[in-house]
Structures are given as C-alpha cells and as structure tokens.
Amino acid sequence: MIKHCLFPAAGYGTRFLPATKSMPKEMMPVVNKPLIEYGVEEAIEAGMSSMCIVTGRGKHSLMDHFDKNYELEHQIQGTNKEELLDNIRHTIDSADFTYIRQREMKGLGHAILTGRELVGDKPFAVVLADDLCVHEQEGVLSQMAALYKQFRCSIVAVQEVPEDETHKYGVIKGEMIKDNIIRVDDMIEKPEQGTAPSNLAIIGRYILTPDIFELIEATEPGKGGEIQITDALLKQAKSGCVLAYKFKGKRFDCGSVEGYIEATNYCYENVYAKDKQANELGKQSTHKESIA
Ligand code: G1P
Description:
Layout: E1 4-8, E2 29-30, E3 33-34, H1 35-45, E4 50-55, H2 60-65, H3 70-76, H4 86-94, E5 96-101, H5 108-114, H6 116-119, E6 124-127, E7 131-134, H7 140-151, E8 154-160, E9 170-178, E10 181-189, E11 200-208, H8 212-217, H9 229-239, E12 242-246, E13 250-253, H10 257-291
Parallel strand pairs: 1-4, 1-6, 4-5, 8-12
Antiparallel strand pairs: 2-3, 6-11, 7-13, 8-11, 9-10, 9-11, 10-12
Helix pairs in contact: 5-9
The structure holds 1-O-phosphono-alpha-D-glucopyranose.
C-alpha cells in the first residue's frame, strides 16, 4: 500500500568527524553493510519499492552504492567473493532509487519537503538511517505499514528513554488508545531538561500522509532555527490525527559513537556471525550431497 520511502541523507554527520569528512555518515558500515542499506532493506521488507533519497554535497557514494559496479563485478566474477554481493544485488533489483539534492540544510522538516517531488501525493515512509532498528520477526516499518492500513493517518515510532535523555529527541504526549498505540495531543522537539511532556521519544521512523507537505511549508523555523517535522506533525495532530507507536524491536542510535559500537556488536553476533554459520553449514551439506 505504501510504495515510497524517503531517506533524508543530506546531513554532515559531524559527531563522527573526521570519519565523515568526505564519507557520508549513511555509508558508515555496521559490520559489513552501510547504515543506509539496513534502512533500505527494512523498507523493502515492508513492501516498499521506491527509495527516495534526499542527498547533499559530497554524497556521490550513496548513489554508487545502489548501482552496478562493472569493474569490480568483472574482477570477482567466478570467485568465492561474488557471494558477498548477493545481498546488495538483490536489494538493487527489488527497488528503484531516485535522488534529489537539498541545497541548504534547514532541518528535517525542510529535508522531507525537498523530497516531495520524488514522493508525490501519496502516503510515504521516512527512515532516518542513523537510527538502526532490528527485530527478529518483523521490521519496524512493516509493523507501522500494517498500522497505517488500519488507521490511515500519520504515525511516528516512539520508544521510552531515560528522562535525562529526552532533550535529544522529539517527545510526544497523548492518550493510549490500544496496546502500544497512542493518539498524540502534544509533541515538542528537543524539550529543555526537565520540561518533557513524557519519556516517549520519537525515533527515526515515520509514516506521513501527503498533507504534511503543506503543513511543513507553513511551519516557521523552530528548535535550533530549523524547520522541524515535529512542529508540522503537531499541527496535523491538532487538526486531524497523528498516532505514536511503541514499536517492537531494538533501536540503536548510530548517530552516537556509543550507539554505533553497540549496533556493531549486536549485528556481528546476531546477524553477521549467524548468516556466516548458516552459509557454511549450507555449503557443507551441498558438498556432502555432491559426494554422495
Ligand atoms: C530527529 C528529529 C527528532 C527525533 C530524532 C530521532 O532529530 O528531529 O524529533 O527524535 O531525529 O533520531 P535529530 O537526531 O536529527 O537531531
């Protein structure tokens, strides 16, 4: 039902300097896969097939990543290295990728508005790639897409955070209407310490209805002098409905060094090492079958 997924990816990634001096932060690898690829896989798993990426200066490697690299593929053709590209090849074949450049950084709301041309006039998802989300059964976007089918309104993913961390996030308040689903009646971007309306923080997964674009256009710069999606969503909540969803799964803040290391350890143990073991077992059994 939701086809488009928007990836705001124009930011500088200053918290990871000097690593991000010439490399986009979305290309930072967690084990052997760039952050944005995890997000794209999550969107594809949720049934989306159009990846719309809002880029900025110096982000060429993002485009190259979701494209063929003939020279490399020719070099490794027929060797056992080829299977390392299986996943990304499959991802590239499962979706189309379009790009638009955000010339000025005026905040997340502005980045989303920049993607309007790519997304069109339909509901769409937004993924902030530095929030890496994992769930063993069903990805967060998939969970949210199912909710959208039922409620047909904008949805933000939320998570409980310690009170002394609420100032880093958009924070919501509202009424619990069902297990894990809250109807938002207030939301505030990065509240000052001690003033947050709750400990439910927005994390980087959204489903937005297209009327959000006009609301963003009419949104004045807010926190940090930037156009905030949180402010536009509050208007939507006041005039219609916005839901917050306490998702199932884990989220790692890969915008911070600590979160990035945690994600790396988790993905190494729970994804990479397991896949590798399964692959090796698979090879052994094919080998045995061919001997037999
Ligand atoms: C953005 C949003 C914020 C949200 C956060 C999630 O902030 O503005 O509401 O809680 O992403 O990661 P940023 O971290 O880009 O400053």
